[in-house]
Amino acid sequence: MRILEVCLYSAGICGVWTRVFEEAKRFEKKGHKVAVFSSNKTKGSDEEAVQKEIKEGVLIRRFPSVYMGGESFMYWNYEEEAIKFKPDVIIVHSYRHLHTTKAVSIAKKTGAKVFLVTHAPFTSGNESRALFSKLAVKGYDALIGPRALKKFDKVVAITKWEVPFLLQLGLSREDIAYIPNGIPENFFTQSISEGDGQKILFLGRISPVKDIETLLKACRKLKQKKVRFKVEIVGPAERDYLAQLTYMVKRLNIEQEVKFLPPIYNINEKIKKIDSAVIYALPSKREGMPQSLIEAMARERIVVASDNAGARDLVDSGQNGYLFPIGNADALARCFEIAITKLRQHEKIRIKARKSVEQFKWSEVMKKWGRLFRERK
Questions:
Q1: Of 136, 212, 259, 307, which is least packed with CB atoms within 10 Å of its CB?
Q2: Residues 178 and 324 occupy one common structural domain
Q3: How sure is the predictor about 359, in pLDDT bands with cuts at 50, 70 and 90?
Q4: For the chain, how many structural domains are there in total?
């Protein structure tokens, strides 16, 4: 079978691209002919990526593109090359983009099945959108989205919390499939280290949406209660935000307890870092599908996450982790205190955490795609 994956970026650090590339590699290993088409932009950079490359057996084609507003809304034309590829299946990523509607017309000309993977665009409170962009989103969902979505053979939600939004846009449950992002099997197969019961770990992008300020305020409250702890905040940081946080650490007098560390990209090193702490914190203002939370749960960490849609999809508070109200430093501090001072009572929670995320193994995710391909139109 010939499979064409279409996404905005295939260069730079991009969560969608991480999924696309992993899927593409696994399709290729199953004997399919796979190509990935994208813009020639590099996520997080002004650089343009090379036009064509073969990476781990996957053909990647990148097309000249023009930004049309916002961080990622752009125009690029890949239709001619897509028709030449003669796909049996087109998997196109990200709702509300021009390249997704283009995929429908290509599918009609080639006879291919066409699937849209939404990537959870319905999170509220998106501060990165200007007023015009917010109005454009509302207009699209009211006028264009309901008609466009019904033209796909299936709309693929990566989270369960997206489904009600898709139903509101006029889809039926039969129109929707659930195929989440996967995590490598390494997170399940490598032996688990116990970790430091007093260490709290955050591992991810250090940006305002992650609300590290609430984490730091909770640390201050722990110190005031004379609870012994240490925190590692690991990941790529936005410069201005990191400066703000560094000043905040000094002002709160928690310099001895809190460390900022550079990002980790190697899977085995990431697993080692996760295992070094028993408690994993994710205080985000919003999350679509929090990959790092799944990874921590797979390693049997005690996860403490803000009660946003993405975390709520994964954590049953008190059963396989803890949820606290978004921005509530007092509640976060209480969760930390319980986890640190009653560590031995958390064995069942840690085991349930691992079991609840076994469905996110890439091997399980790929089985879902196989079943979807076999469905009739």
A1: 259
A2: no
A3: very high
A4: 2
The reply to whether 165 and 251 lie within a common domain is: no
Determine the structural domain holding residue 103 and report its residue range.
2-182+361-374
- Tell me if residue 312 falls in helix, strand or coil: helix
The crossing angle, in degrees rounded to 10, of helices 212-224 and 239-251 is 10
Question: Percentage of the chain with pLDDT > 70?
Answer: 95
Pick from 137-146, 177-186, 300-309: least confident: 137-146
DSSP for 40-59?
A: SB-BTSSPBPPSEEEETTEE
Q: What is the largest CA-CA distance in the chain?
A: 68
Lowest mean pLDDT among 32-46, 209-223, 300-314: 32-46
Length of the chain: 377
Residue 245 and residue 266: Cα distance in Å, rounded? 26
Examine the domain organization and report whether 297 and 150 are in the same domain. Answer: no
Q: How confident is the model at residue 375 (pLDDT cuts 50, 70, 90)?
A: confident
Task: Judge whether 231 and 199 are in contact, CB under 8 Å.
Answer: yes
202 touches 316 (CB < 8 A): no
